[in-house]
Amino acid sequence: MNETVEFTFDGITLTARKDVSVAAALTGAGHRQFRLTNGNKPRGIFCGIGVCQDCLLTIDGRPNRRACMTPVEDGMRVETQIAQAPLVAQNAAQKTAERRAPDVLIVGGGAAGLAAGIAARSQGADVLLLDERKVAGGQYFKQRASAHSDPVDRQQAHGANLIDRARARGVEILPGAEVWGAFEGPEIMASTETHTYALKPGALIVATGAYERPIMIPGWTLPGVMTVGAAQTLWRSYGVLPGKRVAIFGNGPLCAQVALELSKGGAEITVLGEAAPPGWTRPGALLSMASNDRLLAAKGVGMLLGLRRRGIFVSWRAQPLAIKEDGDKLIVRYQVGGAEHKASVDAVCLNFGFQPQNEILRLLGARMRFDERFGQVRPERNANLETSVSGVYAVGDCCGLGGAHAALIEGHIAGIAASGGADPTPRDFAALSRHRRFQNALWRLYAADMPEIEHADGETVICRCEEVTCGAVDDALSAGARDIGAIKRATRVGMGRCQGRYCAPALADYLAKKSGRKVEDRSFFAPQVPIKPVDVATVAATEVLLNTPPADG
Amino acid sequence: MADLFDLLIIGGGITGQCAALTAAVAGAKVGIVDFGQNAGSHANAGSLHVQLQSRFLRLNPHLAENVESSLPLYLAAVQEWEALDTQLGGVELSREGGLMLAESADQMVFLRQKAEREARKGLAVDILERDALGRIAPYLGPSIVGAELCHDEGKLNPLIANKKLNARLGELGVRQIADRIDRIDIEPGKPAAIGQTRYEASHILIAAAWGTEVLTEGLGLRLPTPPEPLHMNITEPGEYAIKHLVQHAERSITLKQFRSGQVVIGGGWPAQQEHAEATPRVRSDSFLGNVALAAAIAPGIAQLRILRTWAGVNTPVDGKATIGPIRPGAPVSLALPGDAGYTLGPIVGRCAAEMILGMPTQIDPEPYSPSRWAA
């Protein structure tokens, strides 16, 4: 269980526990800077879930590998990623290409996807489930990397149980599978380290979850500044702390939960800053939460008490203002109420809400509408959770934030419907509405003035990938750019590796305010393949497959 | 009614903007009206074409003569781009030559014949066998047996060019208006473009690419301008190694690298488009086929990841530029590059503006007269 591996980082030999990610291995060894940008700026782990593309490293001669998605291996040669990697073909992956046509294809192995898989199998459908990570479970159930270690708590144990049930029922889970293509049909293209797949399912269930929204302040791109979820993954999945002294800022219950988890793991939580006012100022919301899910509400209260016992007090109405490097420390300047403070820490963790991962849905042409309360684009769905595209279902947090409990029920409903089963029962609907009422109350409790880029300093980076500042966006607006596409062309905002996942929501909101128009699906960058960056060799291997007629004619 | 312009240009792509630049520098009061939909210049990837594109010859064999007769225009076009590069303070333009690759003896024969035709038209071209080719282009894969090198070809960064040109027009006081022009009235009096607003001008220049057909219907022309939606891909940055504009003798591809290190792959793979005003969409066969071909040509890019794809609209018309007044003396003119719009846009736009202003023209516009489109 405590097997270790040896690897090198820029020639220095390091050790790490087997099965952890390269990101965790390096963090555990005290390294947080992984690459240099085109502008020669240092970068490290940010999102921790394969979205931001900022933790790139050269691994065994292959450039631009995500540290957060790559397990460390014995003898691995890890190097700092330079901005322009040499063009070398030798190490390119030679992948086996395969066609598959499952009855039901599920993208995403979190709460919603696993529940959908189990439900579809119960109808006798042949089910293939793709998950990006090496171990399924998604962000809520966040599993241990090693199958041999015990769950850290009930939440993780519940997830492990769900995965076991899915497997036992015969759901084929394909881990480490990233979807990069979605075309009419639907036809889905995905690849793992060794294989590339062209998939033509009878029905498609999109259960891709959400990723965290950052706050765009000076210094949010520095190594050591990461999402709260990234810090949680380091600890829950890999047993590595993001640093000894940690500051957490954000909005919502995840921040408190992770503060408690990291503290139990031995970290010193220097600041736990919550953007919302204290919960007791909103008794109505509290009451509604308690009446809709007493257990979950009690869990929340227990969490806050647990923090208090450890001497961690929530700073309500808190917002970080700027982060600076000071030797190997980070100095975070923040305000609570009106007063300004400073803290010197090893890691700053940020979570200012969530953004649904709806790229597949948008590409397939599912009708979307904008939710003003959460600032998210959400798919329209019928009672069976089918989108406007026939045979394409959407469940869980990729449809807006509903939480894991609602996701489990949504997955169940869609799994049954997608495999030709009965319509949802009144019991399903009742349970779903109860969880939705709980979520609704939860976010009323946590309602806060969110930081917006119109108040940001001109030097603040809005696009991490292309290093575009808010000032550059304003210049483009003054020069006559009228829509998000024109601003993209003028500034390169959104043209980088994360494909606009962080800047687009901020920019869509900013442009809407400037122009007085409402945000809508078109306010975001036009959806295009690839859904995630995909290497040329993998695309080429898939092309060979599709140019070869199927064996059975 | 909006302001009275000396010259009102319909279409704010590279052609219209360069016409505006020429006219504004000459002191004219210039306005540009653009609809903001499917502008070819916004989707362009910055190839500077000179040699005959095999794609065009293959897809439109009946237009080969037209394209060949335009070769001198292509030469003038890259010179115009160099002048623009200087004037705008650098658009990452380089002219290290364009390669058209062969993978078989037959293709080499085709390239030799093509090179002879092009040399007669004044192009600087060489045929390179594998060894000589390998010395200047070590990034090419083993299947490539030789190539034609056209010394005049090159590339530029269209994002930078568009941005700087836009800023320059702003400094010169050119008004850029967002509107969709539905028709043009010539009678009575001054010509007017009718959109949400009516725009009057001493002269109107149509530089609207695929939008030209509708605008010229009422002007006594029959000028079909169907859009040709094309697919493009771009990778993450790698070491800057592919300095040429790379094409293939038989297959559709353009492959080049920006100074940022990003590799741009395109060259005429189709996109899908329901109608001329719809946003074109990427097709899976074009995405896979185009990228796979690039991987075979330049194996070193295998590990780079494709970050984005997009579809842009080309307007090939009849493979030949259309420049000048719709009828001798008419107050409405046309500026249509006719394929390779981004390469030809600056020279075509300049020439059209020079004719309107009665200035001596950079090139002889006679072969490009709109008279061939009279209904």
Q: Any overview of this molecule?
A:
The complex is a heterodimer of chains A (553) and B (375). With 553 residues, chain A is α/β, with parallel strands linked by helices. Chain A is 31% helix and 25% strand. In chain A, helix 2 links the parallel strand 9 (104-107) and strand 10. The longest helix of chain A has 20 residues, at 426-445. The termini of chain A are far apart. The model of chain A has no long low-confidence stretch (mean pLDDT 94). Chain B has 375 residues and is α/β, with parallel strands linked by helices. Chain B has 11 helices and 18 strands. The longest helix of chain B is centred in the N-terminal third of the chain and has 17 residues, at 71-87.
End-to-end distance of chain A: 48 Å
Radius of gyration of chain B in whole Å, from Cα?
20 Å
Q: Pick out the low-confidence regions of chain B.
A: none
* Category from helices, strands and their pairing of chain B: alpha/beta
Count of distinct strands of chain A? 31
Biggest sheet statistics of chain A: 5 strands, mixed
Mean pLDDT of chain B: 94
Question: Pair with the most extensive interface?
Answer: A-B, 45 and 47 residues
Count of alpha and pi helical runs of chain B = 11
Within the largest sheet of chain A, what's the order of strands?
Answer: 2-1-7-5-6
Quick one: biggest sheet of chain B? 8 strands, mixed
Low-confidence stretches of chain A: none
Helix-strand topology string of chain B: EHEHEHHHEHEHEEHEEEEHEEEEHEEEH
Structural class of chain A comes to alpha/beta
Percent helix among the residues of chain A?
25-40%
How much helical structure, as a percent, in the residues of chain B? 25-40%
